[in-house]
Amino acid sequence: MPSALQSRFVPLQDYFSLDSDGAAERWEWRNGDVYCMTGAQPEHNLICVNIGAELRARLRGSGCLTFPSDQRVKVRAGSPYLYPDVSVACRPGFATINGLRTLLNPVLIVEVLSPSTAQDDIGCKFMQYQTIESLAGYLLVDSTAVAVKHYRKDGEVWVPRLFERPQETIDLPELGIALPLAEVYLDTGLLTG
Q1: Which position among 49, 58, 149, 184 has the lowest Cβ density within 10 Å, counted as fewest Cβ atoms?
Q2: Domain spans, the chain
Q3: pLDDT the model gives residue 139
Q4: Which CATH architecture has domain 40-184?
Q5: 110 and 99 Cβ atoms separated by less than 8 Å
Q6: DSSP letters along 127-189, please?
Q7: Residue 27 and residue 20: Cα distance in Å, rounded?
Q8: Residues facing 140 on adjacent strands
Q9: pLDDT value, residue 48
Q10: What confidence score (pLDDT) does residue 99 get?
């Protein structure tokens, strides 16, 4: 949800002072607009934990690392700094800015959709994420129903595929693994009803 700071242009240096090592909140900077990253519903949080745990377990020993929502990611277009719900990088590269190591080369980004963030995650953020050269996959995960849309980069085109049946498995060729949809929604109560 946008913060009160959104109503005025915030220079990048002011943003770095706000979103620095030891800051109490996490802030995203998007071309002069600043957004405070606030709390989420239990289903959203459980889905993030489930995906992060599954990715970490399946990628163990591969050289690819899974990061939670506290990992800042640098986006190329317009220099936004964003906090995806989950990100994966193989041989991660970082830039240190004000004591915070910012991820430069994610291969997969996951955004869990909430009613207040869905339009932004599907629209503006996805367009910004597409400018990251290393990015090969983008998962949009509904937190109110069993539905995951996987965008996979095929050359210069992003190809979507929708997964809605609990018995389905989400193929992630960019990482050489697959995620069972039932594991993504484990303990959320969404699989039964």
Answers
A1: 49
A2: 40-184
A3: 98
A4: Alpha-Beta Complex (3.90)
A5: no
A6: HHHTT-TT--EEEEEESSSS-EEEEEEETTEEEEEEE-STT-EEEETTTTEEEEHHHHTTTSS
A7: 9
A8: 111, 149
A9: 96
A10: 82
3-class SS of residue 124: helix
C-alpha–C-alpha distance, residues 174 and 33, integer Å? 32
Global pTM value: 0.83
- The candidate with the shortest Cα–Cα distance to 38, out of 67, 61, 13, 4, is 4
What gap in Å lies between CA 116 and CA 68, rounded to an integer?
20
- Using DSSP, state whether 125 is helix, strand or coil: helix
Predicted pLDDT of residue 106: 98
**Residue type at 103 in one-letter notation:** L
> How far is it, in rounded angstroms, from Cα 181 to Cα 189?
13
pLDDT tens digits along 14-61: 777 776 666 667 677 776 777 766 667 899 999 999 999 999 999 999
Give yes or no for a contact between 86 and 45, defined as CB atoms under 8 angstroms apart.
no
> Looking up tokens 């690392």, which residue turns up?
65
Q: Contact 50/39 with Cβ under 8 angstroms?
A: no
The pair of three-digit structure tokens given for residue 129, joined into one six-digit string: 């994420």
